[in-house]
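<discrete_fold_record>
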Amino acid sequence: MVSYSHSNELALLHRGAEFFPALVLAFEHAHAEIYLETYIFAIDQTGDRVKAALCRAAARGVAVHVLVDWVGTGHATAMSLGKELERSGVRFACFNPWFRRGVARTHRKMVVIDRRLAFLGGLNINDDMISDDGRQQSLPAPRWDFAVSVSGPMVEAIHAEVASLWARQQPQTLRRRLEGLRRLYAERLQPLRQVEQAALVVRDNLRNRNTIQRALLQALGHAHDTAWLVTPYFAPGRKLRKALIHAAARGVQVTLLIGVGQFRMQDAVAQSFYPRLLRAGVKIVEYRGTQLHAKVAVIDDAWATVGSSNFDGLSLFVNHEANIIIRDATFSGTLREYIAQGVREGALVSEAQVAEFSWRRRFGNRLAYLLYKLVLQALTAGRYTK
């Protein structure tokens, strides 16, 4: 379900150098309420800066709510962070500890301040110069990622999402849970508002199982000239892979910028798709300058998306995710220029290079995909490859 709104003011924020100063400044001007939801909240220089701003807001009487993911943040870090924040008057919760509610994680990165300003994108609360895979390695350059600041009517929709997930983490009676489910079902039956410019799209395991993928499939299906897609982890289901191939077959210039070098198995899974995509005319570029963490796309310089959803099985079929879709030529053009710069900095993958892969590498790539497919099919009851 996609509901568009107009009269929103959006600003594209590239990397932590633009995102974190804007975020902290917004916290300093908060008057009534802050909701922060993130996958990773690290205890590092950046995390300390954000944490201090949240605590100062709470000391002023602002109602501050922080929700972190138990896997992304880590049990020990989450417990330590929660105790420190709660001592300062911040309300803290951890999403799905010990997998008590299944395997799904909240991979969303959303902030709402006073119901007037919101931030959404791919940036966690962690240092731009330190790897986020637990190894704490220094990066050669700041992590490559994007967020969007939003003011206008869409802030209310973002607030509703973060407040709803926060409420579901609190102790509730069975009656309250049933009332919540009835309310969500009633919202699903409401007619769509199709107003141009911007929309919030979320993925969850209740009423929005396929919303993000469906929006991307529709955009690719209507593409005429160009499609630029960026993801650190590429392992989509069959529908999205076919959509890329069909777009290229229609003459659309499809460019896929992929982050590599962080997880060997993930790289192998992505590379298992290379031969067919390249034969279809999809341009594949590997980004190796630093950790690529952006999850963005631009279609025909008129449609763009920024958010937390990777183009892989976990994001598209399992986890809670949140993206913004923007129909605006100026915004799309700006994002496309950033992507084009990333493509220029990356390494183009050719059919000749892939043809020279040794049989061991080809076998390893195929095996990695089969294992990945087996796990995702089990997690999604077979929906991953559909």
Summary: The radius of gyration is 20 Å.
